[in-house]
Design brief:
Layout: H1 9-12, H2 16-22, H3 28-34, H4 39-45, H5 48-58, H6 63-69, H7 76-86, E1 91-95, E2 102-108, E3 112-118, E4 122-123, H8 127-130, E5 134-143, E6 149-157, E7 160-168, E8 177-185, H9 219-229, H10 238-252, E9 254-255, H11 272-295, E10 315-316, H12 318-323, H13 336-346, H14 349-368, H15 380-384, H16 388-392, E11 397-405, E12 411-412, E13 415-416, E14 424-427, E15 441-447, E16 461-462, E17 464-472, E18 478-487, E19 499-508, E20 526-536, E21 545-554, E22 558-563, E23 569-574, H17 577-582, E24 585-586, H18 592-596, H19 606-609
Parallel strand pairs: 5-24, 7-11
Antiparallel strand pairs: 1-2, 1-14, 2-3, 3-5, 4-16, 5-6, 6-7, 7-9, 8-11, 8-14, 10-11, 12-13, 15-17, 15-23, 17-18, 18-19, 19-20, 20-21, 21-22, 22-23
Helix pairs in contact: 2-5, 5-7, 10-14
């Protein structure tokens, strides 16, 4: 079709810069539809300036970062594709365990987004802004040359850092749950994946069996029948899910080369010399990780192995599927660490993987019971979980998957109610400050005045992260709620997600602020004061009480809540986690599964104490004194 016949003459007459401005009113989907009209419009829409404008409109990274990221990707169109895919992940993700706080902040890296866990810690003498914030890597999602995504889980085992490659499923725009799962796939096409949806009710109807052999079915018929046989990962029993993750991570792991252990993101642009050095290292690191992902080796010679085409994200289960009908129940838990050591000495990869699955299949059948012939007379426990046998029949290969979904979650005072048996992270909704909600957002600080000032008897103060949000009470008054998401004490004081204080913004406080000067001996100027209640000891750990106090708004951007009776004071300032992490200090990660989602109930700082061990999943339950 010619340009005149489709009415594109006016658009084609526009200069590139002007058309780029016009394209701000169009979405990427609109532009893709526009380029289908004729060849001339296809060429016009393919302009780098047009897609640079679209990348800016996504708003995930700054204009300067877009210019730097372009070096690591084929075009701004491919970069736009990547940015749209990962933008919903940016922000704060949490889990209930451990109670000290499990905060993962997802931020831009280099043509990537990086999940960084903030370690519960004490604040040093340099304060929040200048003191290094301790963090550990959890996962990375990297943009390939064409804008597609690859996923790496981070972990540490036996004093070594590893990458665990997998697939990143297409995400929902308003995703609020991140799930680490194992997924059967088709060996012939890595793009056709099982859509494992979690937290969704599934029918109890009997799944239809194959009535013909695979050789008699067309490809489309195979896909249809496989989709009907798919068993979501979430339907498996918790023990089966955990052991599947343990086996898959032990087999797909890649030893981290020295370069890959380099920076995950650059220094601040204000440090120009180090910033340019970082960008060179980040470019080399990305190239190396993409080669490792595609070649599927740990310590490999990248130059001497161009013929390798194996996919490190997938493990073949064809031998396992053939042996399922002949395998007998084998009791006993699978010791993954011992297996990983023995495999290189006595067993081939296929033999180890087959034996491992025989064990967990046997355990699965013994726990969940054999498959009932009819619903009549079957117990609820037999129908509650799917069989591992049925799960593995859904594909030819198996591998790690990061799934981002939007699910209906209830919450209490801005803290989501979480499933305690999901390998998941939950996103905290971040409120942008507005005229009527000016204190909303992430704040951090310590107890004591002046803020962050260590004393001789206590050289370090516990760092607290609080998420401030607004709610209306029953009479329509605005309440400011400070939800604790991180606590830097050695042993937890209050449950994760507790309201450290609740303030009535409509009720001013008349109590005077007891200090006249700050840390620099400058006069303290109180702009506002509100009446509220602060957390206190109550009916056990799970049910804290409250005592009256006041929230003071101090000139210079500080908030301070003081308990009226004890005169204890919690001082806070706004946090920019992205900048703090760029100046922070990286520490070793946990073993891979616990590094993503720590499910063991604990009241101590497991991220600082278990960073160099590999037995955190098996750690005993910690009891509160």
């Amino acid at each position: 079709m010619g340009s005149d016949s489709c009415g594109s003459g006016l658009l084609l007459a526009l200069p590139d810069d002007l058309f780029a401005m016009v394209s701000r009113s169009l979405s990427p989907r609109d532009l893709c539809n526009l380029c289908l009209c004729c060849r001339s419009l296809f060429s016009l829409v393919a302009s780098e300036k047009v897609w640079l404008t679209q990348c800016e409109m996504v708003g995930a990274v700054s204009y300067g970062d877009l210019m730097e990221w372009r070096r690591g990707i084929s075009s701004y169109k491919a970069l736009c594709r990547f940015l749209i895919s990962v933008k919903p992940l940016l922000g704060i993700w949490v889990h209930q365990n451990p109670e000290l706080g499990n905060v993962v902040y997802v931020m831009p890296g280099f043509v990537s987004v990086v999940g960084c866990r903030i370690i519960p810690q004490e604040l040093g003498p340099l304060g929040i802004e200048d003191g290094p914030l301790l963090w550990a890597p959890v996962f990375e999602i990297i943009g390939d040359f064409d804008g597609s995504t690859v996923f790496f889980l981070h972990g540490r085992e036996k004093e070594n850092d590893y990458f665990y490659p997998g697939l990143f499923k297409p995400i929902e725009k308003n995703c609020n749950v991140l799930l680490l799962e194992v997924e059967p796939r088709e060996q012939t096409s890595g793009s056709k994946l099982v859509h494992a949806r979690s937290f969704i009710d599934h029918s109890d109807k009997e799944q239809r069996k194959f009535c013909r052999s695979d050789s008699e079915l067309s490809r489309s018929q195979k896909l249809v029948e496989r989709s009907e046989l798919m068993v979501p990962f979430s339907r498996l029993a918790f023990g089966d899910r955990r052991r599947l993750l343990e086996i898959v991570t032990s087999q797909v792991r890649l030893r981290a080369p020295n370069l890959a252990r380099g920076p995950l993101f650059s220094h601040s642009r204000n440090d120009e010399e180090n910033f340019h050095k970082d960008m060179m290292l980040l470019f080399e690191r990305k190239s190396l990780l993409m080669k490792l992902y595609k070649l599927g080796g740990g310590n490999i010679d990248l130059k001497a192995a161009p013929e390798l085409t194996s996919d490190p994200t997938q493990l073949e289960v064809s031998e396992i599927r053939k042996s399922l009908d002949h395998s007998s129940a084998i009791s006993g838990a699978l010791n993954v660490e011992e297996g990983c050591t023995q495999v290189a000495k006595r067993k081939t990869f296929g033999g180890y993987f087959k034996d491992g699955f025989k064990q967990i299949l046997g355990k699965s059948r013994s726990i969940n019971g054999s498959r009932p012939n009819s619903k009549k007379g079957s117990s609820s426990s037999e129908n509650k979980h799917a069989q591992l046998y049925d799960f593995l029949k859904s594909g030819d290969t198996i591998g790690l998957t990061l799934l981002a979904s939007n699910v209906k979650l209830s919450s209490y005072r801005a803290w989501p109610n979480m499933h305690d048996s999901r390998f998941a992270l939950y996103k905290l909704p971040m409120r942008v400050p507005t005229a009527d909600q000016e204190y909303a957002g992430l704040w951090g600080g310590t107890f004591g005045w002046p803020p962050g000032r260590p004393s001789e008897d206590k050289p370090g103060k516990a760092l607290f992260f609080l998420l401030l949000s607004y709610e209306e009470n029953e009479v329509g008054q605005s309440l400011l709620i400070a939800t604790k998401i991180l606590e830097g004490t050695h042993y937890v004081l209050h449950p994760n997600g507790s309201a450290m204080f609740i303030v009535n913004i409509n009720e001013p406080s008349l109590d005077p602020f007891p200090w006249d000067t700050d840390a620099d001996s400058l006069p303290v100027v109180i702009q506002n004061a509100f009446v509220g209640d602060g957390i206190a000891n109550g009916y056990g750990f799970r049910y804290p009480g409250s005592k009256p106090g006041s929230l003071y708004v101090i000139q210079g951007g500080l908030l301070a809540f003081m308990w009226k009776e004890s005169k204890a004071i919690l001082t806070l300032q706004r946090l920019n986690l992205q900048e703090l992490l760029k100046k922070g200090e990286r520490v070793p990660a946990l073993p891979p599964i616990a590094n993503f989602s720590y499910l063991t109930k604990s009241y101590s700082n497991v991220f600082a104490g278990c960073a160099n061990t590999t037995n955190c999943l098996a750690s005993p339950r910690v009891k509160r004194i």
